[in-house]
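assembly run, all chains below
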Amino acid sequence: ELKVEQNPLFLSMQEGKNYTIYCNYSTTSDRLYWYRQDPGKSLESLFVLLSNGAVKQEGRLMASLDTKARLSTLHITAAVHDLSATYFCAVDMAGNTGKLIFGQGTTLQVKP
Amino acid sequence: DAGVTQSPTHLIKTRGQQVTLRCSPKSGHDTVSWYQQALGQGPQFIFQYYEEEERQRGNFPDRFSGHQFPNYSSELNVNALLLGDSALYLCASSLFGGQIYNSPLHFGNGTRLTVT
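ok done. output:
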């Protein structure tokens, strides 16, 4: 059974600091997604990572994928309050099916 | 271009009752998936519909059933509601069409179901 684990589950950080969220998954997959969820809201797609070594950046967020290590990271650079949200990684169950297995989520709180 | 729309936004039901949730996919999408998100948890896959048939199913009991209509919209039905069914139910659409699927799922705003 595919398992997806994120850490940390909760992250409180000061504005301007850098930090990394880790996402480990238990079986082979080369298709990983990062989503953002604000309280009471739906999921917003951030990144789609499709191959080993893939790196994508949008603003202060950068995501990478290492399929050999079964690890994805979401790096936050110079955090700002607007980045406060819950971040989920998700892995496609069988590579290309649209059936996603989500991690537990990492709640990020950025303090001024 | 309308995104994924779900109705109703909130619903309160009593244990043992039945509920139907509705979803209209993003324009141009042909596949609908349903997810259950309990408070403080990540979404869990319920099932996926394509060409009006259930194509994949997660680890949910038969009390959870669905339907997809010719216009690609979908319904999620839950029978004999339990307190544990209280959650945010998310609908997600995508374009599959049997070909390579590279785009992320587009999620609706969800239906918040409370079972008392």
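The mean pLDDT of chain A is 91.

The two ends of chain A are 41 Å apart (CA to CA).

not gonna interpret more than that til we talk
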